[in-house]
Design goal:
Elements (H helix, E strand, L loop, with lengths): L3 H9 L7 E5 L12 E2 L9 E2 L3 E4 L9 E9 L13 E5 L11 E4 L4 E3 L2 E4 L9 E2 L10 E3 L7 H9 L4 E5 L3 E7 L3 E2 L10 E2 L2 H12 L2 E8 L3 H9 L6 E5 L10 H7 L3 E5 L3 E2 L5 E5 L2 E6 L3 H19 L9 E6 L3 E3 L4 E11 L2 E6 L9 H5 L2 E5 L3 E3 L4 E6 L9
Parallel strand pairs: 5-6, 13-16, 13-17, 14-15, 17-21, 19-24, 22-25
Antiparallel strand pairs: 1-12, 2-11, 3-10, 4-6, 4-7, 5-9, 8-9, 18-20, 20-21, 22-28, 23-27, 24-25, 24-26, 26-28
């Protein structure tokens, strides 16, 4: 069996980014940037006030106070009526450009109005409450590089810089196939001996979270010809992900169906729990994954192998989840020789982060994934004592209390 690292290396060595497309700015949210973004503007384009107050010349203020004559006002979106001279101040509002001659702003709550004058109680430092020109961005700055994921802040910056459309990586189309006579489709009541089709929907959600477009191929019965037909029906997809039917049982038919459809299989079985029977191959330029059938096994193997492949197809240069060091709040055992990826909750405490198992670690206990903040990576045949150190792959942002 391959290690997780060996399997991931073998997978990613066969992944190349898809093409790019230019989309409207808001449609780029959650996508991967495919072009360098060079600023065409200076932001801010002029010195402006960070407070409501009075623009002045710092040299006109004194430690024992000074009175300055108010000679006008300037609001955001307008220009100052004139430059400031010695002994003068101008009413100014947040975001408004400083008048020529001014080099500081005093907040309105710190001063006293005396007729047409404003009394400044003490010395004001040059640059106080002033946002200097180009504080954020200067023309010609490389502000975003290709491969950068676009979140809300990036969308805001692109809008500030005047980018109405941007080039992004194409979203991979990922076909999802579940197999098994025992599966009842969503919207139907499971019959005798049947269980709900969980994997299709969990895996499609994971595809969306990874930046792909899921395509539901439904459920194929445990018949070789039926599975092969569904595999061939995924021809328009960039990736095919099936679940169940990849182990060694009499009805584990997915690998044979893949090869009959023309796939070349590059690996099978990875030394991990949950999720040992993982298949990866290629079919007509598409990536094909055969994941285990138990819901947790399917989700964990998707997380470790399929998610990175989808993100690289979309053009991402970085796809690794953050990892943290934590200490076990109670003993955590991983029996057997395979490395464990165990679901844990994280709790901030005086020692940093404490990790505790979500409960039973059976590969069919889907609620263990719902509760999990991350996956604790535990070597085989290992019992981590209370207080022992663990590495945890984060599945979601750290809970409140992060330091």
């Amino acid at each position: 069996m391959l290690t997780v690292e060996e399997a991931l290396t073998a997978i990613l060595s066969r992944v190349r980014p898809l093409g790019t497309e230019r989309v409207e700015l808001l449609a780029a949210l959650g996508r991967v940037l495919a072009e360098p973004i060079v600023s065409r503007r200076v932001i801010p384009p002029w010195p402006n006030s960070s407070m409501d107050g009075y623009a002045l010349r710092a040299e006109d203020t004194r430690a024992d106070g000074a009175g300055l004559r108010v000679v006008g006002r300037v609001t955001a979106g307008s220009l100052p009526p004139r430059a400031l001279g010695a002994g003068e101040a101008m009413r100014i509002f947040t975001g408004a450009p400083l008048p020529d001659g001014a080099d500081a702003v005093v907040p309105q709550e710190d001063v006293t109005l005396e007729g047409e004058c404003v009394r400044i109680p003490g010395r004001v430092a040059r640059g106080a409450c002033v946002r200097p020109i180009g504080e954020d961005v200067r023309a010609g700055d490389l502000v975003l590089e290709p491969g950068h994921g676009l979140g809300a802040a990036e969308i805001g910056l692109l809008g500030t810089l005047g980018y109405a459309r941007v080039a992004v990586g194409r979203r991979p189309r990922v076909a999802i196939l579940s197999t098994g006579d025992e599966l009842a489709e969503l919207g139907t009541e499971p019959g005798p001996g049947q269980i709900p089709n969980t994997n299709s929907y969990a895996l499609m959600a994971q595809v969306l979270e990874a930046g792909g477009e899921p395509v539901n191929l439904g459920v194929a019965p445990d018949r070789l010809e039926a599975i092969e037909a569904r595999v061939r029906a995924a021809g328009a997809a960039d990736v095919l992900v099936s679940s169940a039917g990849v182990s060694v049982g009499e009805l584990d038919l997915v690998r044979e169906a893949l090869t009959r459809a023309g796939a070349t299989l590059h690996l099978w079985q990875v030394s991990m729990r949950p999720g040992k029977p993982v298949t990866f191959g290629s079919l007509g330029g598409r990536l094909v994954f055969g994941l285990p059938g138990n819901p947790v096994s399917a989700m964990v193997t998707f997380e470790l192998f399929v998610r990175p492949a989808i993100m690289r197809l979309a053009g991402a240069r970085s796809f690794e989840r953050p990892r943290v060091r934590a200490h076990a709040l109670a003993p955590i055992a991983n029996p057997g020789t395979r490395r464990g990826y165990l679901r844990v909750t994280l709790h901030p405490d005086a020692g940093g982060w404490g990790a505790r198992l979500t409960g039973g670690q059976g590969s069919a206990i889907l609620r263990s994934m719902v509760a999990a903040d991350g996956l604790a990576v535990v070597p085989g045949d290992t019992r981590v004592p209370a207080g022992g150190e663990l590495e945890v792959i984060l599945l979601r942002p750290l809970p409140p209390g992060a330091r």
